[in-house]
From TrEMBL:
It is found in: Cytoplasm, Cytoskeleton. It holds the Pfam family zf-B_box. Residues 251-278 form a coiled coil. This is TRI36 ligase. GO terms for molecular function: ligase activity; ubiquitin-protein transferase activity; zinc ion binding. Residues 470-697 form the B30.2/SPRY domain. The gene is Trim36. Its main location: cytoplasm. PROSITE patterns: B302_SPRY (PS50188), COS (PS51262), FN3 (PS50853), ZF_BBOX (PS50119), ZF_RING_1 (PS00518).
Amino acid sequence: KVAIKGIERELICPACKELFTHPLILPCQHNICHKCVKEILFAFEDSFADGGSESSNQSSPRIRISASSMDRIDRINRSGRKRNSLTPRSTLFPCPSCQRDIDLGERGINGLFRNFTLETIVERYRQAARAAIAIMCDFCKPPPQESTKSCMDCSASYCNECFKIHHPWGTVKAQHEYVGPTTNFRPKILMCPEHEMERVNMYCEICRRPVCHLCKLGGGHANHRVTTMSTAYKTLKEKLSKDIEYLITHITQLDLLLKETECNSERAKQEASQSFEKLYCVLEEKKSAALRAIETSKNIRLEKLQTQVEEYQGLLENNGLVGYAQEVLKETDPSCFVQTAKQLHVRIQKATESLKSFRPAAETTFEDFVVDTAKQEDTLGDLSFHSNGLEIPEINEEQSRIYNKALISWECPGKTDSADIYVLEYHKLNKEEESVTWQKTEVCGKSKVLSDLDDDSSYSFRVRGYKGSICSPWSREVIMRTPPAPVFSFLFDDKCGYNNDHLLLNPRRTSVESRAGFPLLLGSERLQVGCFTTLDYIIGDTGIAKGKHFWAFNVEAYSYLVKVGVVPSNKIQKLFHNTSDVISPRYEQDSGHDSGSEDVFFDSSQPCTLVTLGMKKFFIPATPAAPKDPASRILPLPSCLGICLDCDRGRVGFYDAGRMKCLYECEVDCSGLMYPAFALMGGAAVHLEEAVTAKDREHHDDI
């Protein structure tokens, strides 16, 4: 049972904020005091007459009309309501509970039912609140006596003497119904407010209110669906009882859950305390054992050293040499001293020489007793609640990449996001460091962009999930390497030497594609001898003057021939004017003969430093330092290639950008500005690697 004092807010009128007094039921099923309804309608009429002046509601300090209610009153006034209209009009009432304008109908306040049930509950609450205050008799002469009963037919309270006087035996009043002392008098029969002489005996299911048979026959409820009052009473009481029982059942279950949570938390605390107590015991045992070992070693060493001291002191004392020498030193006569001291000095020197081979009997340092707790500290740092239900995340190496920044992406095997937050840890691999220091960052999603990594370094990454205080085990560590130099950003140049008949740039100038169309076929049709065609060159729009830089790109797998590298600014014109590029290394227009003597030195005669790619292969240039076997100079084409230009050292390297492994490196003349250079022939395409940004993380989180 719910305590009577716990329902107080259900017994407060929304208008006057006090306990209900003669509450009425509005059509919206909310309750309001009878007096409050009259005062609000009075304020409404004054607002209509005075144009909505603020003084309209000041005559009644009991009622509090909100600003929103006054706005609705003004809106109703402006809607065109006319006074003295000959047509029946309805009364609009601003409900203070639901903030809606309620139509009270033609009868207005007289058409509202009085909520006797709520009135009885309020009276019961008042009696519980003022149990010590008695209800006095209404008919006693002063001073009035305390009433003992109340008559429901007379709506009055009586003491025993007054009740007998006003209800004599043998009269009609003697048959009146009486109850204990109360101030709440309700009629025995609920009458219809529209037909005052008719009792309500039906319930309108549409309007959700009691009605009489006249309301059903010719009133406003003629076409509405109605049921008998007894049926409505039984149905509504069953529904209300079931709903209350349902609420009480769930409240009881919640109370049980609260108690169970308290018990389980105490049990978990106890188990956690026991676990830590075990750790404390282990540490105390290890501490005691270590201190005992140090103390034992100290005692053994002191004993050995003390024995050695006593041995040497005894040797000297037994011979009396030291005592005799100290007495000789007291001699003040130089001649006598020299005469005696010479022989004594020889003996002292012999004793000193015997001490030169002296070795301590024990070590004084305790370096062997240093306790290394670095691994244990890391283990204790990772100590947390582990749950078998929380999945172990795995770093997705295909979606993760390192370029200008590092994008680390992970996922759960079950494809479910069971963790509330993830912790990503990473550290730089350094063989010289004995202990590993992990850097930690918390992530709400399943990817993270890192920008604080060093160039030309390898990093190890791992991730774990957290749900509250419970965490998953660490994922498998993934090692990734950063570029050998800072990333150099540029776009393809669409002006300098760009041949738009053969090459096609995308609007962002990050991809270029060669068109193997009719111009190439027409050029080949004129050739009868030899085998050569034209390479279409394109360069970057930004040059490099100094420093070390890296850029990456992708070559489509279907590409027939692509050359990549660098070109100095003073050779760009020569590059674009040298339209004939030999495909066969055995063909040279100016050589005068057809031999292979120019094979090795072919690349050195070109205006720029380029390597050849094509047919899913990477060709290492034929140089004196290269392997002589042609097959060993052909490597599989990586999915992503990179170029590292070191202007200060005058070297350029070609990398597998996926693993950051150097495939080929050579010297290059960096006397001028250096530009990235690309050459395409036939069907081929090159795409510049896009920089890692925060949008990449958002994109991966969306996926």
